[in-house]
Design brief:
- The protein is built from nine helices and five strands; from the N terminus they run αααααααβββαββα.
- By secondary structure, the protein is an alpha+beta fold.
- The chain folds into three domains: 40 residues, no CATH class; 61 residues, Ribosomal Protein S4 Delta 41, Chain A, domain 1; 86 residues, Roll (Structural Genomics Hypothetical 15.5 Kd Protein In mrcA-pckA Intergenic Region, Chain A).
- It has a five-stranded antiparallel beta sheet.
- Helix 3 crosses helix 9.
- The chain is elongated and about 50 Å long.
Length: 201
C-alpha cells in the first residue's frame, strides 16, 4: 500500500496512526509549528469516512483489502461483527510480528514477512495477510537472526506491552499465539461500529 506524507495524514486522522507520529517528538513539532488540526462539524458520512481511514492507515491496508475483511464479516451476519473485524485485522501475520515485539514499526513488520525473515511453525511465510491462530509459533528465520533489525530486541521492547494473546521469547526470537485478540472498544483508537455503518449504506 502506498502511503502519503505521514505527518499530514496524522494531523488529519490522529497522531496514533503511525509509530513515528505517536511520540513526544511529533507532539513537540506540532506545538512548535502551531499547526493544530481544526475540524468543523462533520456529517454522519464524514465521520464514518474518517473512522474508516483511521483503521485502514493503522493496519496499512488498501481500500480493496480492507473492504474485503468487512464484506466477509457482514456476509456471515455475525452477532458481534465489530469483534470479528478486529480479530481478523489483529490476526494478520504482519500485525502479530509487530504486536509480539519482533518489529518496532508496522512497516518493518510487513517488510520482514514479505522478505522471508519470518516463519510460522517452522515454515517460511511471505504473505503479510496470513492469518495466525492459537498455538502457532512465529519466529525469526534461523538465517536472519543475526541481521541488524533483530539485534537488541530487548532494548527496543522495553516500552512495549505485549498483548495477552501473544507470548514473546526474546532469547529464541519467537512469539507464540496463546489465545485470540481481545476486543475492547475503549482501548482501540477507532470506532468499528461507525466503520460498519459506512459499509452497510
Amino acid at each position: 500500500m502506498r502511503i502519503g506524507p505521514k505527518y499530514k495524514i496524522a494531523r488529519r486522522l490522529g497522531a496514533h496512526i503511525f509509530e513515528k507520529t505517536s511520540g513526544k517528538k511529533y507532539a513537540l513539532r506540532q506545538e512548535e509549528s502551531g499547526r493544530m488540526e481544526k475540524r468543523g462539524p462533520k456529517s454522519d458520512f464524514g465521520i464514518q469516512m474518517l473512522e474508516k481511514q483511521k483503521v485502514r492507515f493503522t493496519y496499512l491496508l488498501s481500500e480493496r483489502q480492507f473492504s474485503k475483511y468487512i464484506r466477509e464479516v457482514l456476509e456471515k451476519k455475525s452477532a458481534k461483527p465489530e469483534e470479528k473485524v478486529f480479530e481478523s485485522l489483529e490476526s494478520r501475520l504482519d500485525n502479530a510480528v509487530l504486536r509480539g515485539g519482533l518489529a518496532h514499526t508496522r512497516f518493518l513488520a510487513r517488510q520482514l514477512v514479505s522478505h522471508g525473515h519470518i516463519t510460522v511453525n517452522g515454515g517460511k511465510v511471505m504473505v503479510p495477510s496470513y492469518k495466525v491462530k492459537k498455538d502457532d509459533v512465529i519466529s525469526v528465520r534461523e538465517g536472519s537472526k543475526d541481521k541488524h533489525m533483530f539485534i537488541a530486541l530487548d532494548e527496543k521492547n522495553k516500552d512495549q506491552t505485549i498483548p495477552a494473546w501473544l507470548k514473546l521469547d526474546l532469547g529464541k526470537k519467537l512469539v507464540t499465539v496463546v489465545g485470540s485478540p481481545a476486543f475492547d472498544p475503549l482501548l482501540i483508537p477507532f470506532n468499528l461500529t461507525t466503520v460498519l455503518e459506512y459499509y452497510r449504506r
